[in-house]
Amino acid sequence: MATLCRPEVAVPEYVVTAEETLDLARTLHAGHPQLGLALRLIANTGVRTRHLVRPLEETLRHPGFEERNLTYEKEAKRRLPQVVEAALAHAELTAADIGLLVYVSCTGFMMPSMTAHLINTMGLRSDTRQLPVSQLGCAAGGAAVNRAHDFLTAYPHSNALIVACEFCSLLYQPDDLGVGSLLSNGLFGDAMAAVVVRGEGGHGIRLEHNGSHLVPGTEDWISYAVRDTGFHFRLDKRVPGTMEVLAPALREMAGPHGWDVGALDFYLVHAGGPRILDDLGRHLGLPPTTFRHSRATLTERGNIASAVVFDALARLFAEGGAKPGGRGLLAGFGPGITAEISLGHWTAPAPPAPAAAPAAGLLPAPRAEAPREAVRDGEGRARELTPRA
User: Fold this and answer.
1) 315 burial level (CB within 10 Å; 0-12, 13-18, 19+)
2) For the chain, N or C: smaller number of CB within 10 Å?
3) Nearest to 38 by CA among 245, 177, 241
4) Nearest Cα residue to 212 out of 285, 104, 136
5) Comparing C-alpha atoms, which of 162, 252, 253 is closest to residue 208?
């Protein structure tokens, strides 16, 4: 049965704080008639820091769609290999063990896809199946997990690799002055993630069921307008209220399998904003601490689109994981309005095999050992990676 292993998540080195974001909004849009509203909405996101793939002063300039897309391709190719290598190491596999490569991103375009580049440069087999996903937005992380699960149901002796690359800052449009656009400028951040789904073995979430739900009549609530200057993000004011519909959809998907979606042991959901998390908890009757991993991602990274669910999962691993056998949910929400939902059990790592006893008369003499110090990763956060030259 497929197991979603420990992800590797990396963020670029350029940081913008909430205070800098608010100051920029006051400076760049001093005469905006709804500036006060935009400032309140940005402050209410709870985002404290975000990471950018290029320095802030460069991000604020718009050199044209072509140059931005070239930046996307260059930076993705430069930064992703370390993330992929670390994810393979977490799963105790090599690139040659991968049968399916899923690449998700909604912030840049390449053809051939990044999948072809990774296969050519990272030792993946030439018969690796490719699945680029570019139009599901923030739901794509959940969709990638579900499609990997489907693949491994058909090919249980294989393995899948998921790579997410979201450089949301490359979508900044200085002439988009709607309140939704101004809010987006203070909400989205950049991040990369990679994770392996093993067909056999592994430690993490043992995937058991998955499903999708599209809310009818909401196609224009989250969208891109594609213009000469690139992708223009459109966010409808009704989006924060979608949990009223999606929470029951989660119940309906889990119910036939005998799962009560309001009584699980862990939840990893897309953090589109604080109200999404607040409303989902209210509709499911769950306390605010339920979504602490998603909230931490939002606070420290902003909305990192398809990578959110992997960042939340990395935080669960860093916390020590759920209880063995605990039931959990992973869900991504995005344009459509679409929900991609996975259910699974938490599996603990297998205990090490006992060492064979030495033959009689061959016992080594005891020796003193220096005390060992545990090496910890700060507060358990995914580390920042320095890209290769």
Assistant:
1) buried
2) C
3) 177
4) 136
5) 253
How many angstroms separate the CA atoms of 173 and 164, rounded?
23
Contact 188, 302 (CB under 8 A): yes
| CA dist 258 → 115, 254, 261 (Å) | 37, 7, 9
Query: Which residue carries 């344009």 as its tokens?
Result: 335
Q: Which two tokens stand for residue 185?
A: 């400028």
Q: Are 2 and 376 in contact (CB under 8 A)?
A: no
- Average pLDDT score over residue span 272-291: 90
- Which of the 8 DSSP states describes residue 88? H
Which tokens hold the place of 345?
């059990």
The residue-averaged pLDDT of 139-160 equals 97
Please state, as a whole number, how many other Cβ atoms lie within 10 Å of the Cβ of residue 73: 14
DSSP bridge partners of 161: 101, 196
CA–CA separation, 142 vs 295, rounded Å?
A: 17
What is the distance, to the nearest Å, from the Cα of residue 260 to the centroid of all Cα atoms in its chain? Answer: 25
**pLDDT per residue as tens digits for the range 218-263:** 988 888 888 888 888 887 888 878 888 899 999 999 999 999 999 9
Tokens of 35: 């500036």
User: Is 138 designated active site?
Assistant: yes
Amino acid at 96: A
> Please, what is the Cα angle at 322 between 213 and 374, to 5 degrees?
135
Report the C-alpha gap between 277 and 262 in whole angstroms. Answer: 14
**How far is it, in rounded angstroms, from Cα 102 to Cα 178?**
34
Determine the length of the chain: 389
CA dist., res. 194 & res. 168, Å (int): 17
Q: Which residue has the higher pLDDT, 225 or 384?
A: 225
Can you tell me the distance from the alpha carbon of 376 to that of 348, in angstroms, rounded to the nearest whole number?
20
